[in-house]
C-alpha cells in the first residue's frame, strides 16, 4: 500500500522525508519501483534544545531537514510517518501531528501516515491520536492514512493493506495499480469475518492481546534491567528499543554487527539498529517480545550468556559452529543477514525432529484417527 501511494504522489527522483531510525522496509517500499528517495530526519540519542527525551521527533527537525534537502536541490513531495512508531514504540501527540500537518500544508507536502500499530498500544494510560480523528486537518487532500492487518491482528505475512484518503486522484491511481497487488478472495473473506465480530474483538481478542503484551514486555524489561540494559519507555509496539552500548567497546557500527553475530551464534535474533532501521549511531537493538513465554525465557538466557561473555572476555568475534558464516555477513546487507538466519533454521535440528515418521511415533492416537479419517474418505470416493 505504501508503494501504491508513493507511486501515486511522486515521480522517480522525488523525495519523501522520514524520521530515522525507522522500519527499514520503507526504502524498498517507496524506493523500489516508485524510485522515490527517502530523506532521513535524523533522530539521535543526544537531546537537542526543546527535546524532553532522546530520539524525539519535533516539527523543527522536520523543517531543518526540509530546508537542507531543498538547498541541496532535492524535490520533497511529502513525509512518511509511522505512528505508533517502529522501532521506537513512541506515539505522537495530537499537538505534534497538528504542527507537522500545518508545516506540510504550508509547503504543499503530502503526509503518509502509517498507523499499522494503532491497536498495539498496551499502555492503557496512553492517549493515541489517529490522524483521521483530528477535526481540522489543514490540507485533507494531502493526508493519506495506511494500515494493515499484520501487526494489530497478529497476522504477519497476511499482506493486506488499507488506505484511507479523500484525494480522488490518489484513490483512482491506487485503484488502477492495485490490480497487481490484489488480496485473494478467501483471505478477504477471513479478514471480513474477523472484523465483523466486534464483540469478540472488544471483549476477548484485544484485551487478551494487551494483557499478554504487558506481561511479556514486563518480563523482558526486568531481565534487561538485571543485565544493565536501558530500554526506551514507550506505550506501544511489539518490541523494545534497547541500548546495548555498554557492551559494545569500542562503540562502532562494525562492533554493533559483531554483537549481532554473537547473538545469532547463540541462537537468538535481535534486530541491529543501524543495519535494519538506519539508526544514525551504533549500540541499539530492537527486541520483539511478542513470542511464546518459553521462547522468551530461552532467548533471554542466551542473551545473558552472550553479555556475560562480552563482560568477561570483551567483544570478540563468535567462535561457535556458525562463526565462519557469521563472519562473512559483515560487509553485506540485511537481506544477507536474513538469508543467514533462514539458512540456520533450515539446517537446525528442527526439520529433522519434525519429520512425519517421528511425529507418527510420538502421536500414536492421532495417527490412528488420521488413518481412520483417510479410510472413510477413500470409502466415500472423496479424494
Ligand atoms: C511500520 C510498518 N509498516 C508496514 C509494515 C508492513 O506490513 P505488512 O507485513 O502488512 O507488509 C511493517 C512491517 O514490519 C511495519 O513495521
UniProtKB/TrEMBL annotation:
Pfam families recorded: Aminotran_1_2
Keywords noted in UniProt: Pyridoxal phosphate
GO biological process annotation, one example: amino acid metabolic process
InterPro entries (UniProt xref): Aminotransferase_I/II_large (IPR004839), Ethylene_sulfur-biosynth (IPR050478), PyrdxlP-dep_Trfase (IPR015424), PyrdxlP-dep_Trfase_major (IPR015421), PyrdxlP-dep_Trfase_small (IPR015422)
UniProt-recorded Gene Ontology molecular function terms: pyridoxal phosphate binding; transaminase activity
Start and end residues of each Aminotransferase class I/classII large domain: 11-303
Superkingdom of the source species: Eukaryota
Name of the molecule in the record: ACCSL protein
Organism: Branchiostoma lanceolatum (Common lancelet)
The organism's taxonomic lineage, starting at the top: Eukaryota, Metazoa, Chordata, Cephalochordata, Leptocardii
Gene: ACCSL
Amino acid at each position: 500500500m505504501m508503494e501504491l501511494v508513493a507511486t501515486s504522489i511522486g515521480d522517480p527522483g522525488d523525495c519523501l522525508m522520514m524520521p530515522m531510525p525507522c522500519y527499514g522496509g520503507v526504502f524498498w517500499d517507496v524506493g523500489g519501483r516508485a524510485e522515490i528517495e527517502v530523506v532521513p530526519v535524523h533522530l539521535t540519542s543526544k537531546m537537542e534544545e526543546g527535546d524532553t527525551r532522546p530520539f524525539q521527533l519535533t516539527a523543527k527537525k522536520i523543517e531543518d531537514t526540509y530546508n537542507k534537502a531543498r538547498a541541496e536541490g532535492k524535490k520533497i513531495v511529502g513525509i512518511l510517518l509511522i505512528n505508533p512508531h517502529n522501532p521506537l514504540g513512541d506515539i505522537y501527540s495530537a499537538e505534534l501531528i497538528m504542527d507537522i500537518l500545518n508545516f506540510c500544508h504550508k509547503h504543499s507536502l503530502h503526509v503518509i501516515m502509517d498507523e499499522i500499530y494503532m491497536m498495539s498500544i498496551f499502555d492503557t494510560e496512553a492517549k493515541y491520536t489517529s490522524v483521521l480523528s483530528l477535526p481540522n486537518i489543514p490540507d485533507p487532500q494531502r493526508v493519506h492514512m495506511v494500515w494493515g492487518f499484520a501487526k494489530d491482528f497478529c497476522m504477519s505475512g497476511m499482506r493486506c493493506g488499507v488506505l484511507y484518503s479523500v484525494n480522488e486522484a490518489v484513490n483512482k491511481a491506487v485503484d488502477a495499480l492495485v490490480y497487481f497487488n490484489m488480496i485473494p478472495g478467501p483471505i478477504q473473506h477471513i479478514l471480513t469475518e474477523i472484523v465483523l465480530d466486534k464483540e469478540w474483538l472488544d471483549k476477548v481478542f484485544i484485551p487478551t492481546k494487551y494483557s499478554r503484551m504487558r506481561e511479556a514486555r514486563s518480563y523482558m524489561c526486568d531481565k534487561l534491567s538485571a543485565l544493565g540494559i536501558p530500554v526506551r519507555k514507550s506505550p506501544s509496539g511489539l518490541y523494545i528499543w534497547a541500548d546495548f552500548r555498554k557492551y559494545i567497546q569500542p562503540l562502532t557500527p562494525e562492533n554493533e554487527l559483531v554483537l549481532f553475530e554473537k547473538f545469532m551464534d547463540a541462537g537468538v535474533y535481535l534486530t541491529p539498529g543501524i543495519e535494519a532501521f538506519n539508526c544514525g549511531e551504533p549500540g541499539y537493538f530492537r527486541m520483539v517480545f511478542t513470542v511464546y513465554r518459553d521462547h522468551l525465557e530461552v532467548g533471554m538466557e542466551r542473551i545473558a550468556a552472550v553479555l556475560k561473555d562480552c563482560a568477561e572476555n570483551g567483544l570478540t568475534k563468535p567462535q561457535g559452529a556458525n562463526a565462519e558464516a557469521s563472519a562473512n555477513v559483515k560487509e553485506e546487507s540485511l537481506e544477507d543477514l536474513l538469508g543467514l538466519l533462514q539458512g540456520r533454521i533450515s539446517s537446525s535440528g528442527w526439520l529433522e525432529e519434525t519429520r512425519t515418521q517421528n511425529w507418527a511415533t510420538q502421536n500414536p492416537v492421532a495417527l490412528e484417527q488420521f488413518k481412520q479419517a483417510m479410510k472413510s474418505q477413500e470409502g466415500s470416493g472423496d479424494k
